[in-house]
Amino acid sequence: MSCESLRILIADDNDSDRMILQAIVKRQGHQVVAARDGVEAIEKFKECTPQIVLMDALMPRMDGFEAAEVIKKLAGEELVPIIFLTSLTDAESLARCVDAGGDDFLSKPYNQIILQAKISAFNRMRIMHSTLQEQRDQIAENNEHLLQEQQVAKTVFDNVAHMGCLHARNIKHLLSPLSVFNGDVLLACQKPSGGMHVLLGDFTGHGLPAAIGAMPLAEIFYGMTNKGFNMTDVLREINQKLKNILPVGFFCCSCMIDLDFENQDIDIWIGGLPDAILYRTNGDVVKIKSNHLPLGVLSTERFNVDTYKFEMRPGDRFYMWSDGIIESRNEADDMFGESRLLELFQQNQSSEQLFGEIQSAVQQFIGDKEHDDDLTMVEIAMMPEHELGLEGSKVGKSALKGPTNWHFTYEMRNESLREFNALPLLMHVIMEVPGLRSFSGQVYTMLAELMSNALEHGVLGLDSKMKQTPAGFAAYYMARAEKLKEFNDGWIKIMVDHQPLEKGGVLAVRVEDSGEGFDYSDFNNRKLVRTGYSGRGIPLIGSLCRRLEYLGKGNIVEVEFVWRPE
Amino acid sequence: MDDPNVTHIDLNALEELKDVMEDEFSILLETYLNDSLERIEQLKKALAAADSDAFSRAAHSFKGSSNNLGIQQLARYCQDAESQSKAGDLSRGQELLDKIENEFEIVSQLLQEQLGLQ
Amino acid sequence: MSVTTSKSADGNVINIRIQGRFDFSSHQEFRDAYENADDSVKEYLIDMSETTYLDSSALGMLLLLRDFAGGDSAKVTISNCNHDVKKILTISNFEQLFTIK
Does the structure show a pLDDT above 50 at A417? Predict the structure, then answer.
């Protein structure tokens, strides 16, 4: 029966009583610490930290009531049950015991069974109490830890997110300070070639899971925009990243715009957010419906980057928001709703005031009700770019200074030629030239065609004349596959050279292969004719480049691509 | 006034104590006897000083220790002494003290016998 | 890269949808798509809304389709091209041979 062995303090001035109690308690397997009065009881308590105290009420020097109060104080948050040993029976005395912190009474003559039951009951209570205490402390500690982590996460996120230009004069926005934890993200960044990208995102869920995707999203948004990638590339990359890292069911409803101040137009991609609105100075309200799935849902192959393009005159304003605005509720639990929002556009007198009007209408609607802090909204106006107030603050402009004057040679041999696609690597190096990114499609086509010519006609020695008939076309590619498998002695050398011009630059590419070459006299005399289904690559390159020339025995080709910023 | 069902010593209770105390049973009895003599001295002093509080406290303690050993009649007298004096009334103090002393004589006799049997 | 086909209710129009990169690696799949269609097909719709890239061999493949469909009398429409794809088609003057939407 005897459970765990406890240290029990017995305080009683009456020797025979103390002896009896001590004997009973010891017999039940516990250790006894004995005291003869209140003063001694406190000393022994400090010294031995007993778990349960059995104490006589009336004792010389210091009585049990006083000692109990001191002991309870010493015990602090720990529960040390005090059982009063008393033959006092009047209500007043019993009340004094309780007031002093007594937890129970035991009357004389002592009954072994009752004593045992009380000790084990209080021991259970004591253990439960300390478990609760531990759990409470653990929870408090965890909570503090979590808050700390959130603070760190928020700081990191702020550092990433605030690189942008949300402070530009054409942007008004509303965003909760802890928005990263309600999953709302608002990013804006100037493009190196002029213009601006703005992205509003609303991640599913709340708390850390919602915040986790915001970091890579912001990184990609700023990184790629700074490097001159266009909006569709940025969206594709963000989508792919989110798709890869977020668990199924987590995604980001988003709206991204590409604002062109020079041509005065706006390109809009919207997936999963409420209708955005283009508000024209003449009062026209153009609703732009979400026509895509949110970011992070579709695989890259299925991801669609179609955008809406609108002319945007100075003073025209574009509005986008997370569902928090439309879904905000008043005391009666009604939703603010789209019709109330549209009414504000209709009633608006001065578009300059509209943002404030929407904000106060929503606040007024919600009333004093505690709001959920996810009222995220942004207004972007068209104005001349030099009035944005961003002069000199162009994001990380110094970091943009990529190399513009360089040359490299890259040679691929044998199995590398067979197994490795060098294009992404080459593109990566070439696209470091600031501003050249806008021409990535053309540069890619040029390199891809040159490389495949060098491989197919040069290294593998395939004759494009094969492609004159449909059957030949198929045979050509079968032969290509076979020869590629077999060859083990060949190379392609690619030399790329870039020199800056006052605006833009010249990208020169020379591709040399280990093949036999061909008689290019006709070609250089511009007499090359397209035959059948082939011969389209070279004219394609030719139309992109300033110069296209064959050299040597026909196994060397040189092209020059001149580009100027848009 | 004396309850016929109340005995000098509840032998069953004493038997139980013998079991609990094992080797220390005789020491317990000796301790009780010595303590009790002290309580009687305290009662006498308190009565002489007409200190009802001290009288009541001593009676209370004496009652408790007697109860614990199953010494019923003596505990009963102590109880009477305690409750009367607690109300500040010492009018029957001497009478009760005499009863307590007489009863203690009997009880010591009986306990001495118990010790002898050990 | 993948090629999927579907037909209009009357079976006269075949829709060929090309996802991802359209280059030499898809020639067999692309050819199967139109050669395996039955004789009722009179019109070809090439849906490039999900075509990310087009190279010169793909141009050749489009010409193969055009010849298969009747050469100058062929009804082949290329639709929903992205910027890069459209540029390549334009440079090659393909709008003279195909309807490009």
Answer: yes
Rounded CA-CA distance A411/A496 in Å is 11
The SS3 assignment for A56 reads: strand
CB contact at 8 A, A361 and A153: no
Residue A210, pLDDT > 80, answer no
CA A256 to chain centre: 17
Q: What is the pLDDT of residues C19-75, one digit of tens each?
A: 888 988 888 889 889 988 888 888 999 999 888 888 888 888 898 899 889 888 889
**Res. A343: pLDDT tops 90:** yes
Instruction: Round to whole Å and give the CA distance between B65 and B63.
Output: 6
Q: Locate A239 and state its tokens.
A: 């989508």
**pLDDT band at residue B5 using 50, 70 and 90 as cut-offs:** low
Reported in sequence order, the residue ranges of B1-118 that DSSP labels E, i.e. its strands, are: none
Chains that touch B (3 or more CB pairs under 8 A): A
SS3 A314: coil
Bridge-based pairing of strands C13-22 and C2-7 is antiparallel
Q: Do residues A492 and A513 lie in contact, with contact meaning Cβ atoms separated by under 8 Å?
A: yes
Check CB contact of A13 with chain B, cutoff 8 Å.
yes
Inter-chain touch A87–B65, beta carbons under 8 Å: no
Give A137-153 as a 3 state SS string.
HHHHHHHHHHHHHHHHH
Give A452's contacts in chain C (Cβ within 8 Å).
Answer: 24, 55-57
- Chain A residues near residue C64 by CB distance under 8 angstroms: 470, 473, 533
What average pLDDT is seen over chain B? 88
- In the predicted model, is pLDDT for residue A1 greater than 70? no
Contact A446, A545 (CB under 8 A): yes
Q: Is A17 on the interface with B (CB under 8 A)?
A: yes
A114 touches chain B (CB under 8 A): no
**Residue-wise DSSP of chain C:** -EEEEEE-TTS-EEEEEEEEEESGGGHHHHHHHHHTS-TT--EEEEE-TTEEEE-HHHHHHHHHHHHHTTGGG--EEEE---HHHHHHHHHTTGGGTSEE-
Q: Is B73 left (phi over 0), alpha (psi -120 to 50) or beta?
A: alpha
Does any CB of chain A come closer than 8 Å to the CB of residue C2?
yes
Q: Report d(CA B77, CA A340) in Å as an integer.
A: 90
Query: What ipTM score was computed for the predicted complex, to two decimals?
Result: 0.89
Cα–Cα distance between A495 and B114 in angstroms, integer? 119
Classify residue A335 by its DSSP letter: B
Q: Tell me the per-residue pLDDT of A169-184, one tens digit each, with 9 for 90 and over.
A: 999 998 876 666 778 8
Measured between CA atoms, how close is A418 to chain C, in angstroms? 14
Q: What is the pLDDT of residue B71?
A: 92
Asked whether the predicted pLDDT for residue B2 surpasses 60, the reply is no
What b/e sequence results for A43-73 when a residue is b if at least 16 CB atoms lie within 10 Å of its CB, and e otherwise?
ebbeeeebbbbbbbbbbeebbbbbbbbbbbe
pLDDT of A381 higher than 70: yes
Contact A470 C55 (CB under 8 A): no
Q: How confident is the model at residue A138 (pLDDT cuts 50, 70, 90)?
A: very high
The predicted structure's pLDDT at residue A358? 93
Whether the Cβ atoms of residue A200 and residue A321 lie closer than 8 Å to each other: yes
Q: Please give the pLDDT value at position A557.
A: 93
Supply the DSSP string of A146-211, one letter for each residue.
HHHHHHHHHHHHHHHHTTS-TTSTTEEEE--TTGGGTTEEEEEEE-TTS-EEEEEEEESSSHHHHH
DSSP string, A396-411: THHHH----SEEEEEE
Mean pLDDT calculated for residue range B22-44: 91
Joined together, the tokens standing for residue A163 give 């690189």
27-46 in chain C: CB under 8 A from chain A:
27-28, 31
Q: Which residues contact A476 (CB under 8 A, 6 or more apart)?
A: A462, A464, A466, A467, A534
In whole angstroms, give the CA distance from residue A559 to residue A547: 5
